[in-house]
Amino acid sequence: MVSSPRSAGRPRISVLSAEQIIDAAFDLVRTAGPSGFTMAGLARALSVQPPALYHYFAGKDEVVRAMRGRIADMIDVSGFTAGPAERSPGAFSDAVLRWAHSYREAFLSYPAGIALLATTAIDGQERSVANYEAMTVAFLGDGWPEAMIVDAIVVMESYILGSALDALAPEDIMSPGASAAGAPHFARAEGLRTRNAAERGIRTSDQAFSLGIGALLTGLRSTAGLA
Questions:
Q1: Of 5, 25, 158, 191, whose CA is between 20 and 30 Å from 111?
Q2: Percent of the chain that is helix, strand, coil (3-state, to 5)
Q3: Closest CA to 21 of 51, 49, 75, 57
Q4: Which residues, as ranges, make up the DNA-binding region of this protein (predicted)?
């Protein structure tokens, strides 16, 4: 029996879901950029009429909040919520480092979201706000000055997002290549860096990130009078 053709105007995706819309939103940001991210464009990407999207989301801002929520769900804040019995010397720093690495990995999964989400307010995204609340409580427990906490988080997030972009670059981006003869000291230093990363079984960008986030945390704690 020959099946009847699909009715005109009928969506290609038979059953739409919020998760499908979020997936398509990240894809649209990747192809069209933050400025090209619209509800009309999102509907076209899903082969549905715009009203179909409003059954799940009230508008673009709500879609963006859902995108941020997906990222937030991938970020490890478990170390900040540990009870006193679970805390040990260095537990706070370990929690920050786990948070930072998971934050970077989350955005590496959705690199197109960096520009959009980094410039969109967290207002209304409950999971992100809950994460920041858990972090703030942990910072206070570690003795940080209250007025410095959010600035410290923003400083680390700026580094994390930049490092996520760095991780997308070619592995040999810092290699002087044919120009090595004119920069022997740099070429040797870069060669040692690459060899060290290879011996550890990691990418050079991962090695640089670990060095930087550790140094950044140490410096911030020193500035806070906690070193």
A1: 191
A2: 70, 0, 30
A3: 57
A4: 38-57
Burial class (CB in 10 A: 0-12, 13-18, 19+), 25: buried
Residues 69-101 as b or e (16 or more Cβ within 10 Å = b): ebbbeebbbebbeeeeeebeeebbeebbbbbbb
Enumerate residues 6+ apart whose C-beta is below 8 A from 39: 50, 53, 54, 59, 60, 63
Lookup: tokens for 3: 């099946």
Separation of alpha carbons 72 and 134, rounded Å: 13
Which DSSP state fits 160?
A: H
DSSP alpha helix (H) spans, 35-174? 39-45, 50-53, 60-73, 91-109, 113-117, 126-141, 146-167
- Give the domain ranges of the chain: 18-71, 84-223
Q: Regarding the domain with residue range 84-223, which homologous superfamily does it belong to in the CATH classification? A: Tetracycline Repressor, domain 2 (1.10.357.10)
In angstroms, the CA 24 to CA 70 distance is 13
Model confidence over 116-171: pLDDT tens digits? 888 888 888 899 999 999 999 999 999 999 999 999 999 999 999 999 999 999 99
